[in-house]
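During the no-cost extension, the postdoctoral fellow (Dr. R.K.) reprocessed legacy sequence entries with the updated structure-token encoder. One reprocessed record is reproduced below for audit purposes.
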Amino acid sequence: MNDEFYEKAGKKYERVTNILRIIHDPGLEQLRRVKGFSYVDRIFQEAADRGKAFHSAMKIVANGQFKDMIQEAFKQNHPDIYQDILNCEEWFNENVVKVLYSEDTFYDDKYRFAGTPDLIAILKGDKKPAIIDYKTGSKILPIHKLQLAGYTHLVEDSTNLKIGKRIILHARDGKIKLIQMKAKKELDITLFHYVLYLHKNLK
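Re-encoded structure tokens follow.
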């Protein structure tokens, strides 16, 4: 899988996550200077593998199939995140009324970029769909709200949906935390558009 582009009908679409790489994390740069590139690359790969396994499990949860042999396989193969998965499954079962999209990719043909939101669903007590992004890293960064903004743009541009809540579900060390974006949706989308413009014009 290319971590910079999606392809559709022979055309390349840049990933939202790749566009946001133009924004540098000063803490990461400091860590590279202190620990070295190989150390940081190893930590990143471990985090990526953990995140990939967690996302795979949550997609199965969204499809209603996380049980029996599949559940046992995750318990055996991913003991470090198994409790996180169970906690999120419990939250999912208690709060999700209807799944609209789970790990589906949306494309913007005008600006030629794309992204795959983790979950778009109707939550209990809500009329508008929520967009939810799973995170398993050690901390939530400001850049993550721009990632959600990019996904929100794609969903609203590609469908007739109007997104309500924008939520990061942070699962780590056997605990989950829901972080709801406070800023106005339109403002965050505008900020993402600025980053998109810079990315395309500073390459």
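The domain at 11-201 is CATH 3.90.320 (Lambda Exonuclease; Chain A). The radius of gyration is 17 Å. The remaining legacy entries will be reprocessed before the final report is submitted.
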